[in-house]
Structures are given as structure tokens and as C-alpha cells.
Specification:
Blueprint: E1 4-8, E2 15-19, E3 29-30, E4 37-38, H1 47-51, H2 57-60
Antiparallel strand pairs: 1-2, 3-4
The chain binds zinc ion.
């Protein structure tokens, strides 16, 4: 199980290495560089799935939603 993902902000391109919660999805993520609040893209369960280098732990375990 991968618990660290790098989120790339679609607005400013900043990359943020974040630790993912192992048992829940993260729906909102504020970019610390430009302060935009990221939300999951349609069809994705969380911001890590949409913008991270790895899918979230629940998705990795296929028990998301
Ligand atoms: Zn940003």
C-alpha cells in the first residue's frame, strides 16, 4: 500500500508530497502555493486519484465507495 502521493496543482503546477489517509478519501485539497481548493474530477473519488501520482489507499484496495 502506497501512502505517499505527490499532488500536482492543475492551476499553478506546484507539486506537493502528501501523506494519504489510509482509510478515507480526501475530497478537498488546498494548494499551499496558489491556495486554490482542488476537488476530485468527475468519476474520481478523491483529489489523490485526480491529481496525485498514486490513487488513494481505499482505491488501491478497491473498496472506495
Ligand atoms: Zn497551486
Amino acid at each position: 500500500m502506497i501512502l505517499t502521493s505527490t499532488i500536482t496543482c492543475p492551476e499553478c503546477g506546484a507539486a506537493h508530497s502528501e501523506t494519504m489517509p489510509a482509510d478515507q478519501c480526501l475530497y478537498f485539497y488546498e494548494c499551499s502555493a496558489c491556495h486554490i481548493v482542488l476537488k476530485p474530477k468527475a468519476g474520481d473519488c478523491c483529489v489523490f486519484c485526480s491529481y496525485g501520482t498514486f490513487r488513494c489507499p481505499p482505491k488501491q484496495a478497491e473498496r472506495c465507495r
